[in-house]
Specification:
Length: 292
Amino acid sequence: MQERIPDLIARNKRFVSLEFFPPRDQAARERMLEVARRLKALRPLFVSVTCGAGGGGSNTLEAATALAAVHGLTVMPHLTCCGLTPERVDNAVAQFQAGGINNVLALRGDGSDGTGPKPGAPFMHASDLVARIRPRFPDIALAIAAYPEPHLESPSVEADIEMLKFKLDAGADFGVTQLFFDNRRYFDMVERLAQKGCTKPIIPGVMPLRSMASARRILSLCGAAIPGNLYAALEAAHAQGGDEAVQEAGTQYAARQIKGLLDGGAPGVHLYPLNQSDQALDVARRAGLLPD
């Protein structure tokens, strides 16, 4: 059985973790494993594996199992509320543990294509998953999502902090944030949480921007605000050198962001490499995170 991530966090500082999305075919599987091989240079503390519509997803389990078996990585599959019944939740977690996986990221699932949980579904929120899993699988390590900027459906920052605390108090062991670009938002969130008596680890998520298309997609879909000075720099870079220049500007910004987070006391950083290795390795090198 793999180690629980909270135990790894307690023994490590200034770590990197990574996120992968599961491949759809054999060719994509081979590409994912090659990217993982290259990113092992970062000595990631763990890697998470996303899932699409349908909650558990056999492709998520298969990808997580492959990353663990081929590269010896500690894995954390995502589990969303979408389409799940209590029995399917139990079966999914039991399958994870049968495969030696002892860590799960419990999510509501906010599909922009209408794949989120439907009204009246057994599981409407990540806290429902935590409440189901914690008493039945006491050895599993549970993570939940945190939002340095309020969730799109949250009425206020304070309400968002209360929900984050509720999920952690319900039995989650740590949080991983949605991507963001203003470090002040992260530190404010952690401070507000601590003022409420909750000091469980919250790992900040960083996504290096690769293109203007990715920047515009973030603005339109996930609710993360791109600071005006960063967006202006990206537009200027694009005008001068296209997306290659945008990637360079995004790499520089992400490296500075990571340095600021770690110097400010974040336990580590969670990188979103989008199943690609080149930019993530470059960011880590500039941030001083590539091991000797």
